[in-house]
Each structure stands twice: as C-alpha cells, then as structure tokens.
Input
Amino acid sequence: MDLTLKAASRGKFAPLFIVLSACGWLPRADVKAPRPSPVLAQDGPRESWNEGRVGRTENVVLVTIDGVRWQDVFGGVDPAMATMAGMRADDVVDAEGLMPNLYALARAGAVSGAPGHGRAMTATGPNYVSLPGYLEIFTGSRDVGCRTNGCDATKMRTFLDAARDNLAVRDEDIAVISSWDALARAASSAPHRIAMSAGRTGGVSREKVRVDDVAARLVDEGATAAAAPGDGDYRPDAYTAAIALRYLDVVRPRVMAVGLGDTDEYAHAGDYASYIQAIRRADQFLGDLRMHLKQMGKYGEQTTIVVTCDHGRSSGFTDHGWDAPESGRVWLITSGGAVPALGYLDEGGAEHLADIAPTLEALLGMAPRHDRWSGTPMAAVTQAFAAKYVGKAGGRTTAYR
Ligand SMILES: [Zn+2]
Output
C-alpha cells in the first residue's frame, strides 16, 4: 500500500475512533474480574526469580501470548465456562493456580491492566486483531497504518530495529522466534539485519536462528510439524518455545521477542479447555525462561522479562475485533533487570500497547522517540529506574538513530 492510500485510510477512520472514545465505548477499568486477583504483598515472602535484586536492564525478553484475556490472567479459570467445556472441577483454579510462573514474575515486577488498579490498558485499535496489535507493540506507536492481518511488512522503524542499531554487535543479538508467521511483518522493517524465525518456514533471516546443532534440529522439526492448532505456516508453540530457550542459552541476545499463539487458535475454535491448557503451557515456558536466566549469572540478572498480549477477546470469548470494543483490553507484566517489585500499578503504568517499546527503550538507555503518536514510557518503572541511576552513572543514554 502506498503512502497516499495509507494516509487516506487513516483519515477515514480517525474521526470514528474519536467518537467511540468520547462515548466511553472503550473498555473501562472498573470491570470486575471473575474473582479477586492474587495478592502481591510487597513485604511477603519473595519467590521472585531475581531474589528481589534490582539492577540494570541490559537485555530484554519480550513474550507475547496471543489473545489471552485479562479475565483469565487476573481471575483464573472461569467456573461457568469450564463447566460448559466439560472440564474437571480441579481444573477450575484461581489466577495464580493457572499461571504460577507469571505470578512469580509479577511478584518481582510491575503489573499493568489489572482490574481495580489504575486505568485499563488497551490496544489502540480500533480493530482489535493481531497484526495491528503487534505493530503497536513493536513500533511503540498508536498509529501503525494497519487495521487488518493482511497488511504488508511494516516500513516503520521498530523497537527491534532501534535495538539493532544501538545495542547489537551482530545480527544475532536481536531475535524474533514466533509461532505465527505474520508476526514477522510487525517485528522489524529490516528483518535481514536480525535473526528471525516466524512460523514453520517464515522469516527471511531464519538461517541465523540455527545457532548450533540443537537449534537447527528444533527449527527443522518445527518446519515439518503439523500446523495445528493453527493453519498455513503456523508453528505450534511447543517448537517456538524450545527454539527460543536454546537460542537464549547459546546466543545470550540483547533483545529476543518470543511470540506464542496456540491460545488464540483454540479460542477461535471455541475450545475453552484447550485454550486454558495452552495458557498453562505458555506459563510453563515463562517458568523455563526464568530458570534458564537464573542459571546465566549476570546476563540473567540484567535481563528484563516482559509478558503481554496483542488483544483480548469479545464477551462471547471466541472472537475479537471491530465489533467487540471489550476485546481491546490487554495486560502487561514487566519483571527483572532494572524493574523493581512495584506490584499492581495504580498509576504510572502502561495504558496502551504503544507504551511498551518506549518503556523498554528507556530501561535500555536508548534515547526517547519524538512523535505525536508515540507511546509513553511507564512512569512508575522509569522513575524508579531514574531515581536509582540518573546522576550516578553519568548518563547512559545512547543516540536513538
Ligand atoms: Zn492475536
């Protein structure tokens, strides 16, 4: 799509979006979770993966779990939906029972988008589908020039592109490992300059992900696996997760984005039980990630883990998009490295997906972007960081090119 067309389509939709916002039709913060969210006692026993150490952020692992609802993340398994899905009584667990590893990260970090804490966090939309959501995450902009999953690869400079220029020594220092092939179109405008394996066979730089015999074997196994629960070039999460962990161990990348997607595939099929199982497996990946980082010494201590989603779900569960403004609601956990244990953020948290990239750029010491559509760094996180470091380190800001 050329620039004229893009500008035209933006102009066409912008007034509609403003009207919806003014009517209060977007998701509200005061919607209740199915049950109370777990207590994140700041003075309670620390099970945090970094033993409460707050240091620097030199590296980032960004994990996206496609289309996982805030209701499940903060409220646990929905009893009524579980009954309808024929799940066993002991499958109906609270949020921490569903995602124990996410909550281990939450106890050591900062949580945005929890019910009853601050303003709701949303994808900007107005079409709450995957590609615009990922574009917002990776570009740090609320105007990504894309409203469907069919958009061409982005020409916008992404957080990964900026990290490649400012932090990386080699292409492999910046990596994308994702289940959904189309995530490649959102993650980078210069994918040949990083290492990217997206879907079973996608990613122009996927050869660079074959960093050793084990990684190469995992990439090959993923390429020949069945696409289910997805279709087309989709690669099941089990392969994506295994490749990501191996890549982390071997390369120690400065920034790695891991895109999981089984959750959204099962939800579209209306299969709540399998959706919940996919959430459990995604949480297990977070536990594995935490354990790997714990065994990586200083690298692990200086790594910030970010976990979020690209959109939520409609009140009817299976869908998301234009006609379901409630599906714009998302959530975010930031933990490790320079992020202190702040718990649920009542203020200074992220309000849009676009706030994630600027926050990470601030933590990594990259100069802020200046654009009217740019997201805002999370004040709660960056202020805690600044209080600790500004004036002591003589400034560590590098040019944002
Ligand atoms: Zn999605």
